[in-house]
Task: inverse folding
């Protein structure tokens, strides 16, 4: 399915790279890419609706008591139609991941991760108000203000349009109906957008992102600018295209295996584990259509052909992290009881060995989403651990939970 649209996708990804080089001068290209994404997504959604209608027709034919051979053929047709729907869904995800790449270029990463904490709005085609949203998008562009239409992304799930205010997003609801008063749905949505925008500008928020009533969220500063291993990843992939496979140590405790036109062999995986005390293995191909709220591969892999080969499973990527380094770093900071449950959104828990109820007990929780920035976004493992210790140092409570 992706092969059929490869040239279109290559063109869009090339424009993403062009925009990335000089974002402030590429607002016209930003608008053009979004116009293309809109038309392509609507077209694919129309194909899905037709496939669903065909499946309904085929199921009705089964009720009409067909012969055994006819029933078998109908069931095969239904199975093929469902497979096509899945493939179209993957294509829409990839198109929207290009929208995610645009958002990641113009906005810092932490707001984008928070804005993914909500159910996606669903189909774009037939949505009331999409025409006026595009009109507003063009008005932003006319004033040279970078803006992203949320329905063209996988991750922007609050509001209709997000505009740039110096790398900080400003969320807008675009409505064509009048509000029904202080208790109306539009009023509640507007109040929710105001709380989200206040958090982005003040780093403090309450009753946002689906947290329980009264829950507060506070963003603390990073200890330094985030460091990524993108260059080493791209070099390893280029080498894999020359020799079939390439194993590269991105930094101590962080390794990448890239293979082209083949799955990683048991021998290459075994070699990759050599010297690793406690391995955390992430096969990125198996989750490539399920990633939300992270830097998209369209940015980290950079080369449009490499991006599409990865999504078509021609390029395989495996990341291995030696989490014994996480244990040792936490032990040096006084955390002697470290565990890696890796369930329910929690990657790692740790405490300083004091009994529960002890006034000197300190607890630490590292969320899966935060750690997965290492495996999915190729965030430096060393930077990640330095950030954990920095957050622990500046935190006032005895217990701290790190999810970003």
Result:
């Amino acid at each position: 399915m992706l092969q059929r649209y490869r040239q279109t996708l290559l063109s869009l990804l090339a424009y993403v790279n062009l925009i990335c080089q000089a974002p402030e001068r590429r607002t016209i290209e930003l608008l053009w890419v979004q116009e293309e994404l809109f038309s392509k997504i609507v077209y694919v959604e129309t194909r899905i609706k037709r496939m669903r209608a065909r499946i309904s027709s085929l199921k009705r034919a089964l009720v009409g008591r067909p012969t055994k051979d006819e029933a078998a053929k109908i069931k095969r047709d239904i199975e093929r139609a469902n497979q096509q729907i899945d493939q179209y869904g993957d294509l829409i995800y990839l198109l929207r991941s290009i929208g995610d790449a645009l958002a990641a270029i113009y906005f810092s990463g932490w707001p984008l991760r928070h804005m993914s904490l909500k159910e996606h709005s669903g189909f774009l085609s037939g949505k009331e108000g999409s025409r006026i949203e595009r009109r507003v998008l063009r008005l932003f562009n006319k004033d040279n203000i970078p803006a992203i239409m949320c329905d063209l992304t996988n991750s922007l799930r609050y509001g209709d349009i997000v505009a740039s205010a110096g790398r900080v997003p400003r969320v807008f609801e675009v409505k064509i109906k009048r509000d029904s008063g202080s208790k109306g749905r539009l009023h509640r949505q507007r109040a929710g957008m105001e709380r989200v925008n206040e958090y982005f500008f003040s780093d403090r928020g309450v009753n946002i992102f689906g947290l329980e009533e009264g829950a507060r969220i506070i963003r603390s500063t990073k200890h330094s600018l985030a460091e990524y291993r993108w260059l080493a990843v791209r070099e390893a992939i280029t080498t894999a295209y020359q020799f079939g496979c390439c194993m590269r140590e991105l930094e101590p405790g962080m390794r990448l295996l890239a293979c082209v036109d083949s799955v990683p062999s048991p021998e290459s995986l075994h070699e990759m584990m050599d010297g690793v005390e406690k391995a955390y293995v992430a096969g990125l191909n198996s989750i490539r259509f399920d990633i939300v709220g992270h830097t998209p591969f369209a940015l980290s892999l950079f080369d449009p052909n490499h991006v599409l080969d990865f999504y078509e499973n021609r390029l395989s990527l495996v990341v291995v992290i030696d989490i014994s380094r996480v244990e040792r770093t936490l032990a040096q900071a006084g955390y002697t009881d470290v565990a890696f449950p890796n369930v329910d959104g929690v990657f790692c828990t740790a405490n300083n060995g004091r009994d529960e109820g002890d006034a000197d007990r300190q607890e630490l929780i590292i969320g899966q989403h935060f750690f997965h920035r290492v495996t999915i976004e190729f965030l430096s493992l060393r930077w990640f651990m330095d950030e954990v210790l920095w957050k622990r140092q500046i935190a006032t409570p005895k217990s701290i939970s790190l999810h970003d």
Summary: DSSP finds 13 helices and 13 strands in the chain. The chain has two domains: 2-176, 220-404. The CA atoms of residues 240 and 319 lie 15 Å apart.
